[in-house]
Design a protein that fits this description.
411 residues, alpha/beta, Peroxisomal Thiolase, Chain A, domain 1, 2 domains, 33% helix
Length: 411
């Protein structure tokens, strides 16, 4: 990239906190954000649910019109702008772009509408919500942000399954490098815990994680792992060209170094190790790096049997000979935040540039021998010199994304 692109603000909400600092401290402390809660038609299930004030930055009327995903996006966007010390009344709103990765949205409200149609309204469709269409159009969460903040620049969501949390920042970096915008609000959001359908689907696949202790319901890389814990949340980054960030004296969290996205073209659900290797390799080529240059690999690691093994084969094949490359994963702490996962997991690792700590995995009582990577951070954080992070996010229908960031340094 001719233009150096940097991250200057972070806004997030997740099962382990409502700010990047709170999230980071809870990761380092080894806390779990997963609890048991009731879901319609499903009973008690393990999930990772956020606890933030939905109407902190929007009216109750607008929240009623919108979606849970939109509420998460609005909260994260405001927090990111505040963190970046950017004030909307000083910005050209036509030069701000909003790019949010999603898996799904509008499902929560749609399921509620169907429930009411059959149980309260005797199937009288005249009582169906007139807010249904704007809630379910593909651009909804990003569009809700523009309505709330009066942004007149481009906005859209990027439907990339569980790879989407990386694709939002990648799109932001590309649009900044092209000069199409001056500020990007880019990341990923998910409202998955409000819908029974996603729980039921994973259960029917035999891939819904469970345990009497909810904090152990998902155990990526553990020999006895039994599936995914569905979670919700969002992370949005303020991204700028380095020249603009330096002009205003912004705090710089990280610099975008490289990225890649590809497709398995193999199966609806099962991942393909070969394409994951290819994705990470091309991201490193883009960044002009080798495996020895990567200090942290944050694995996608969902807690499914084959998914974890195939990713470990990919990561081990590339980084097994790099003794200084630390490997961790985040979903054991917060569950799988779907479209928000990649953005949240990157945000949770960025603190390593400052504190020199690599957060551990969570819930591994007996490491699966097929996942026994030599530099895996198992139980407690480890000290390391961290200047680069490679973040993996993969999704259904065989979409893979890898995003590399580096610690900002003057040349």
């Amino acid at each position: 990239m001719k233009e150096r692109i940097v991250i200057t603000g972070i806004g997030l909400t997740c099962p382990l906190g409502n700010s990047v600092n709170e999230f980071r401290q809870n990761l380092l402390a080894g806390k779990s954000g997963i609890t048991h809660q009731e879901i319609r038609h499903m009973g008690k299930v393990a999930m990772g649910r956020c606890n933030f004030e939905e109407t902190l930055y929007q009216s109750k009327k607008m929240r009623k019109r919108g979606t849970r995903a939109g509420a998460i996006a609005i909260y994260c966007a405001h927090e990111a702008l505040k963190d970046a010390d950017l004030k909307m009344d000083t910005l050209d709103t036509s030069r701000i772009g909003v790019y949010l990765g999603v898996t799904e949205h509008g499902n929560v409200e749609t399921e509620n509408e169907i429930h009411e149609l059959y149980n309260l309204h005797n199937k009288d469709v005249s009582l169906w919500s007139h807010h249904h269409n704007p809630r379910t159009v593909a651009n909804n969460p990003a569009g809700e942000v523009t309505l709330n903040l009066k942004i007149t620049g481009p906005h859209y969501t990027i439907g990339a399954a569980c790879a989407a949390g990386n694709l939002g920042p990648i799109q932001g970096a590309q649009m900044l490098a092209l000069g199409e915008i001056d500020v990007a609000l880019a990341g990923g959001v998910s409202e998955s815990t409000g819908t029974f359908g996603i729980f039921a689907a994973f259960a029917s696949q035999g891939a819904l994680g469970h345990h009497d202790d909810p904090s152990m319901a998902t155990r990526p890389l553990d020999k006895n792992r039994n599936g995914i814990v569905v979670s919700e949340g969002g992370a949005i980054f303020v991204m700028e060209r380095l020249s603009d960030a330096l002009k205003r004296g912004a705090t710089i969290y990280a610099e975008i170094a490289g990225y890649h996205c590809n497709s398995d073209a193999a199966d609806f659900v099962l991942p393909l190790t070969e394409r994951q290797v290819e994705c990470m390799s091309k991201a490193m080529k883009h960044a002009d790096m080798t495996p020895a240059d990567i200090d942290i690999v944050n694995m996608h690691a969902t807690g499914t049997q084959m998914g974890d093994i195939q990713e470990c084969e990919a990561v081990g094949g590339l980084f097994g000979a790099s003794p200084n490359t630390k490997i961790n994963c985040t979903k054991g702490f917060i569950g799988h935040a779907m479209g928000a996962a990649g953005a949240l997991e990157l945000a949770g690792n960025l603190g390593s540039f400052e504190d020199g700590l690599v957060h551990s995995c969570h819930g591994i009582q007996e490491l699966d021998p097929k996942c026994a990577l030599p530099t895996l951070v198992l139980d407690t954080p480890v000290q390391a010199s961290v200047k680069t992070i490679l973040n993996n996010s993969f999704g259904m229908l065989g979409i893979n994304s890898a995003l590399i960031v580096k610690k900002y340094q003057t040349l």
